[in-house]
Task: structure prediction
Amino acid sequence: MIEPANSERELQALLQLLDDPDQEIYTHVSDRLASYGPEIIPKLETYWEEALDSILQERIEHIIRHIQFHGLQAGFKQWLESESENLYRGALLVARFQYADLDEVKLRGEIDYIRRAIWLEMNYNLTPFEQINVFNHVFYSLMGFTGKSSDKQFSLPSYFINQVVESKRGNSISLGILYTILAQELDMPVYGVNLPRHFVACYTKDFLETLDEDEDLRDQIICYINPLNRGTIFTRNEVTLYLKKIQEEPVKEHYLPIRNRETIKIYLQYLKQGYETDNNTEKLKELDELLRLF
Result:
């Protein structure tokens, strides 16, 4: 491993060598600069602003992205090794994949505002169906959140929860993730269900974290929820009808709740489909690296 450069003088020398036409020299310089870690990004951004050469700017952008992605990988590893696998933290990491400078404090405050609004209307003596109706009323009718079909014109921002919170519009996976985050933070045992081509949720009898890993989850489901369609409640039979409609052979996994770790993995897979539509090969390569962590 290359040790970080240890002086301002050496840093300036490295920056001056960034536009060297010799690829071997550039690779060495790039590695040395990346070894500084996130602390060097402001200096690189300043140098980018002063650069007149587009190739030099591209090289600086590449180094910044390399540093940010390395930090993102470390964040995912830490999240996967944690016992809680908090869904919000996982979704925040996914958002940072596209929005490295995301204001986490602002986003957390906006989500807390929505959560409090639902909590003020919630009565935990209600049945699960009644709780879902209260949640849906505040989330969709009062807050104005709505779904947009991901099968229509591709829209990259609609995949990330920070953009969903800001625009109040999301596709199947992003709106479903936000819905599930809020429900879990309101002590409602709501989890994702990985239907083909469509991410939905379900309300379970208990939180999956309280169950054994090998426990049969078929008896846990109370009902299914479609966040894309204003939180509509539906049944197992309707899941089967949907699978027949899209000519997909029903398997057990199509009906079961998934733990938060699996939800984020599926989130990244949806995102990969989006970048394939956008023909972004660099992002696709990075997503493959993140998916290998799972």
